[in-house]
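Example record

Each entry pairs one chain with its bound ligand, iron/sulfur cluster.
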Amino acid sequence: MRRYNVTTFGCQMNAHDSERIKGMLEELGLGEAPRLEDADLIVFNTCTIREKAESRLAAHLGLAKALKDADPGRLLAVGGCFAEVQREHLFEQFPQVDFAFGPGSIAELGEWLKAERNGARGSFGSGGERRFAAELPFRRERPFQAWVQVSMGCNSVCSYCIVPTVRGKQISRPAEKVLAEVRALAADGVREITLLGQNVNSYGRDLPAAERVTFAELLRSCDRVDGVERIRFTSPHPKDFRSDLIAAMAECESVCEHAHLPAQSGSSRILKAMRRTYDRERFLSLAAEMRERIPDLALTTDLIVGFPGETGEDFEQTLSLVEQAAFDGAYTFVYSPRYDTEAASLPDQVPEEVKRERIERLIELVQSIAGERNRARIGSTEQVLVEGPSRTDETLLRGRTRRNTTVNFAGTAKAGELAEVRVENATSTTLRGAQVVSSPA
Ligand code: SF4
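Structure tokens for the complex follow.
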């Protein structure tokens, strides 16, 4: 067993977990095979948040079966949320799978591999006590950027969401462990950290009273760590966005001027059915307060269309929320019923053609507003963390502003460096520009 290949599906938490899976496998002496067909061990780190994620996985599992038929010595392990939710039927449904593990038991893949070398197959990790992937070694995608897990699981009960079922109740990592990791990362040359949690801003509530730290306090502590230039966090919940967090964002120099604030809908009636625990007015006043107190803030969101019972009027409310909040960007989704979620058995499921018509109108509006806001940056100079060559034009470089906008630009900076870029053009999702070469003093 010499080489592995990890395919990641889904969210940033899975991206983080995959870096840990790779770190663990490399500690066991395996090397990475860039291509699936060159791997002795194939690992799929899966997602089950929407139907689409599962159909993508099914295609990958089919390909893995063909590769295993061609080489029976090859192994296939499936982890993440789909594995967790399908724990009872996975091997029956996909007999090509040799080992499976949940998002809270990644370490068991390593233990199984050691055992496998002596011949054990077709088992699911015991799924015993959930353990933080953050305790495992890692192999980072980029040496200058890092995910830092601050909690796992979620205590919210959004009626459409399967996360609490697959990732369990919220457990926060002790603040000292998070800070120790941030200090080590900074010492290792990491310039940008992203604090990760399913509901990152409810961090700390479950910690023992003596150790309890709020997310705002944690953010301030991370801001005091030398060497960290930029701090981001995801994914927050509007109900937990309080004035102490807004103040920390406004006052901490390294905390970037970007907040991802999932609204999900603009209709208070639908928000109630989603069990989001805030209404339209509360969301809009929160967005206004954040824009007022955090200069130059970029606000992005998540929006679902076609939630059961959504009327034309409800959908119009979502459109008007987008206009009023003037988002800098949005992830838009068509409602997809999930196993054992409350919403899946609600009446008045919206017909597919109506969902499609609504998502098209929503995307059009989101893009027109985001385009307008990006065009307003033309002529400005942005600080960009260079990530590497542009994906669309090899003569250009690519990076991200503090407002989390992708910039493709002409320049000489290296990956991992901070560059000043003058914005010359914009689309609804990216900026284009040229590096401002500062003249030597
Ligand atoms: S806050 Fe709601 S949508 Fe987000 S992970 Fe928790 S239950 Fe799911």
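The CA atoms of residues 272 and 279 lie 7 Å apart.
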